[in-house]
């Protein structure tokens, strides 16, 4: 191969410029772009003018698009749930501000944070309630749905019951997930009410729940940190153990046996409080802590070993009410709607807590038995049994802090609340729907 061949770049068309006899002929002339010719100077000026107008129009359109919001959806149109879900799936990857931004778009509001201006509807929140199929949780869910929030219940149904939340199935604002909080969970939410934990001695002695309190709380705190949600822990008056101070103030550190049969619950909740404060201080998670005192009401688990449900179920079945010890130990009894109000005020308020949430009205077990007799059966019998280990002698909340900082105090007395619970228990035990025996009409 000769060097001339190496440098040959010509194509077939170039070879066409050689005549058959090998003689060179000139290349055809190349067509170049040239401005159109105008018949007159006026026509040329008009064409230039048109071109300038087109360019000006394009510039104005570009400017307008860059100033308008990045959505083609008019702000008054609702964001669909499907859109919320798909955006949520993306947002799980990390940005906690997604929901606020979406909601603000929905509300046509411009800035993140701050108070909702007067006249505008309250921001609709996405709220997780762990243990939401249980006694307290299900009443909380009712209130949150009633307020217009989207609620996700996470529950493993250990002590909870689907029936407690059945009435919300089919409501697009409600979701139910069977899940054990001991396993991690990813959800995009604004608030987490963490209730998951069996609250009755029968259950937590049967299945020690330290892991639920520790690992479950860690998982939910991790979720709160990841998505920037506010986290509320439902702790308990049991953190005071068998208190040496009466009534119990939040600053009291308690008197707890670390190795007793109740320790899995008492120490579990104390650790959960510690973890909650660690995430608050160390990871700036917004947290709230409620220390709940004995609460009663409809949907309580029947026969769960808690004193009010025990007495009511026994009196309804014409069995003797079992009083442990001499019956002089005291407790305070709070109706569930009062507690739910307190929990929601705490979540919405500015204070971390801990806050005692309970009814300061103090009753001995024998006084409670008397109220149950008056409500159900004057002839209901009482039977004394040996007291259980580590049963606290006295329990009464000091709720000064909740009164001052949350503007909260219980409204429903035991004599008003108990008939509401009795009515519910009667229906569940006997399937009794007879209005004449229905005492739920008692005004609360
Ligand atoms: N009711 C009271 O008097 C009282 C007093 C003090 C504190 N508390 C606290 O309030 C919360 C609710 O109590 P409650 O009376 O409604 O009890 P509950 O037993 O009726 O409800 C607890 C709910 O948590 C669920 N749960 C338990 N372990 C779980 C797990 N590992 N994963 C997912 N779900 C789980 C149960 O199935 C149930 O639905 C508890 O944290 C409890 O410690 C209640």
Overview of the molecule:
By secondary structure, this protein is of the alpha/beta class. The protein has one domain (124-441): NAD(P)-binding Rossmann-like Domain (Rossmann fold, 3-Layer(aba) Sandwich). It is 39% helix and 12% strand. The protein has helices at residues 3-6, 12-15, 41-67, 81-91, 98-107, 135-147, 201-206, 210-227, 263-283, 307-316, 336-348, 365-375, 400-406, 414-430; strands at residues 126-130, 150-155, 174-178, 191-194, 230-236, 287-292, 295-296, 321-324, 330-332, 334-335, 355-357, 362-364, 382-385. The strands form four sheets. Strands 3-2-1-4-5-6-11 form a seven-stranded parallel sheet, with helices on both faces. The protein has a two-stranded parallel sheet with strand order 7-10. The protein has a two-stranded parallel ribbon with strand order 8-13. Helix 9 links the parallel strand 5 and strand 6. The structure holds nicotinamide-adenine-dinucleotide (NAD). Residues 130-131, 133-137, 155-160, 180-182, 195-199, 212, 216, 234, 236, 292, 294-295, 301 line the site of nicotinamide-adenine-dinucleotide. GO terms for molecular function: NAD+ binding; UDP-glucuronate decarboxylase activity. Pfam families: GDP_Man_Dehyd. Belongs to the NAD(P)-dependent epimerase/dehydratase family. UDP-glucuronic acid decarboxylase subfamily.
In terms of DSSP E residues, the strand content is 5-15%
Q: Give the CATH H-level superfamily.
A: NAD(P)-binding Rossmann-like Domain
Fraction in helix: 25-40%
Would you tell me the overall average pLDDT?
A: 79
The top level CATH class name: Alpha Beta
Order of helices and strands: HHHHHEHEEEHHEHEEHEEEHEEHEHH
How many β-strand runs? 13
Shape: elongated
